[in-house]
Specification:
Blueprint: E1 2-14, E2 17-40, E3 47-73, E4 76-96
Antiparallel strand pairs: 1-2, 2-3, 3-4
Length: 97
């Protein structure tokens, strides 16, 4: 498995108003390479079964957070945020023999 993560944060403040935005891009890959074997021993016979399986899962995700706050006075403020999460691409490759 490997993963990459990039993030950028931008803030803007004027008087009591503050705007901020966080953008993140996350990429990850999971890979497996598996060998499985079975031996069956019925009467007067031996059966061996082998299987090889490999797969790779890839995913790219975008995350966005927007924040807004306003200072009403020295002791009071109001604010909110919105979070957006979107899978940009995702695929899985698998084969077995």
């Amino acid at each position: 498995m490997w993963a990459g993560y990039d993030q950028a944060v931008i803030k803007y403040r004027i008087k009591g108003l503050e705007l901020s935005n966080t953008t993140a891009l996350h990429s990850q890959v999971f890979k497996e390479d598996i060998d499985v074997g079975y031996t069956l021993l019925p009467k007067d016979n031996t059966i061996s079964i082998g299987q090889h399986f490999n797969d790779a899962f890839r995913q790219n995700v975008l995350s966005q957070t927007f924040r807004l706050s306003y200072d009403i006075n020295a002791g009071n403020s109001i604010g909110g945020s919105y979070w957006f999460y979107k899978t940009l691409s995702s695929n899985m490759d698998a084969n077995s023999n």
